[in-house]
Amino acid sequence: MAPKEPVVRLQRRGLLFVLSSPSGAGKTTISKQLLQEPDIKMSVSVTTRAARKQEVDGVDYTFVDEATFARMVKDGDLLEHANVFGHHYGTPRRPVEEMLAGGQDVLFDIDWQGTQQLKQTARDSVVSVFLLPPSIRELERRLRSRAQDSEEIVQRRMQGAQEEIRHWAEYDYVLVNDDLDRTMGDVLSILRAERLRRERRVGLYDYVSTLRTS
Amino acid sequence: MAPKEPVVRLQRRGLLFVLSSPSGAGKTTISKQLLQEPDIKMSVSVTTRAARKQEVDGVDYTFVDEATFARMVKDGDLLEHANVFGHHYGTPRRPVEEMLAGGQDVLFDIDWQGTQQLKQTARDSVVSVFLLPPSIRELERRLRSRAQDSEEIVQRRMQGAQEEIRHWAEYDYVLVNDDLDRTMGDVLSILRAERLRRERRVGLYDYVSTLRTS
C-alpha cells in the first residue's frame, strides 16, 4: 500500500487527520496501523485524569493537574479541549504547528467536541473521518467484551456511543467498519489522496515554473 | 488495490472523474487502467472531426457533422463542449445523468475548457485531476516519440501542452507523473477516497438510523 518515493519531491503543508468514532468501532486499531505510515504522528493530548496502568507520561498523554490545564486554556496553548466523563483533555498547539510546518501530518484521536473546535482553529488543514460500527448489536458486543468493565460502565459507554454517533454528519468521510482490512485500506486511501490535494502541495508553483518554455 | 466488497452496502451518488493533462503526460495509459475498476465507465464524446484508423463510432467517439453538433449545443444536450484545433468535441448529457443516478462514476478525458464547463453544470459531483509531466524535456521527448507526426504537429502539440499546463491550478488534485505505477496508485486512491466522502454516501442516513437505540 505504501506509495513509491517520488522522483520529483514537492513541498507540502501537513494536515490534521482526525479519526473519531464511538468506542468499540475500531478506532484504536486503525490509529495504530495508520501510525506505521511515514510522515504521520499522533498528537499527544494533555489530560487531568489519572494515568492508567502501562500509560506513559508524555507518550500516551501528558498528565497535568487542574490548575495547569486551566492556565493552558487561558493562555491559548490548546488547539482544542473537552470534558469527557468529568476529566479534561486538550491538544497543545505548539508541537502540532511545528509538525505541519515541516510537512508532517498529525493524527488526532478525538471526539466530536474536539473535532468541532479543531475545525474552528484550523479549518482547511483538517481532514475528518468518522467510523461507524457495523451494527448496534456488534457495538454492544464489542463494548461488553472488555471483561473488566462493570455493567454501569458498559451502559455509560453505550450512551456515550449514541451521543458520538449523532455527530456523524459533521465529518468529511464516514466509514462503516464492517471489515477491518477494507476499512484500513479506505483510511490509507483517504490519507494518500488528501496529501495530493492541490492546495496542500505548495511546491507545485515552483515546479510548474520549470515546465514553462516562454 | 481493489477494496473488498463491503458487508454493509450503502447507496451513493456517482461522481464525474475528470483527468486532464497536456498530451504526453500519460493520461491515456492512466485512463485505460482506471477503466478496469468496477463502477466507472468512460464518457463517450461526440466530435465533428473525422474518425482516425481503428477508431470505432460510438465507442471511441460518436462522430457527427457540424449541423448535428450545433443542434446539440442549442438544445442543451451537451454537458460541455470545446473547440480543439478547429474540431468540436462535446459530452452528451443524458447517458452521464443515467450513470450517476445508478451510483456509477463517469471518467472524463477532457481539457481545461471542458473541465471548466463541467464544473459549472455539475460542481459538487466533479473530481478533477491534473497530470503534469516530470520535466519539459521528457514532455518533448514523449511528444516526439510518436514517429508519424511532422515537426509542425510536434510544435503545435508543445504549444497546446503549454496552454493546458497554464490551467493546473484549477484542479482538485495535481500529480507529477514521474512514475507510472505510483501515479496509478495515486489516482486509484483519489477515486476510492472520493467515493467515501460523506456527502456522496446518501445511504448513510438510513444506515445510521439503524444504530439508534432511542
Q: What is shown here, in short?
A:
The structure is a homodimer of 214-residue chains. Chain A has 214 residues and is α/β, with parallel strands linked by helices.
Query: Structurally, how many domains make up the residues of chain A?
Result: 1
Helical fraction of chain A: 25-40%
Radius of gyration of chain A: 19 Å
Tell me what the CATH architecture of chain A is. 3-Layer(aba) Sandwich
As laid out across the biggest beta sheet of chain A, the strand order is 2-7-1-8-9
Mean pLDDT across every amino acid position of chain A:
90
Could you explain the architecture of this structure?
The structure is a homodimer of 214-residue chains. The first copy, chain A, is of the alpha/beta class and 214 residues long. Chain A has one domain (16-208): Rossmann fold, CATH 3.40.50. Helix content of chain A is 39%, strand content 20%. Chain A contains 8 helices and 9 strands. In chain A, the strands form 2 sheets. Chain A has a 5-stranded parallel sheet, sandwiched between helices. In chain A, a hairpin with a 2-residue loop joins strand 5 and strand 6 (87-92). In chain A, helix 5 (136-144) runs antiparallel to helix 6 (151-165). The interface between A and B is large, with 48 and 48 residues.
Identify the notable features of this structure and list them briefly.
homodimer, alpha/beta, Rossmann fold, four-stranded mixed beta sheet
What order do the helices and strands come in, and which of them pair?
Two copies of one chain form a homodimer.
Chain A: E1 16-20, H1 27-34, E2 40-42, E3 45-47, E4 61-63, H2 66-74, E5 78-84, E6 87-92, H3 93-101, E7 105-109, H4 112-122, E8 126-132, H5 136-144, H6 151-165, E9 173-176, H7 180-195, H8 204-209
Parallel strand pairs in A: 1-7, 1-8, 2-7, 3-4, 8-9
Antiparallel strand pairs in A: 3-6, 5-6
Helix pairs in contact in A: 5-6
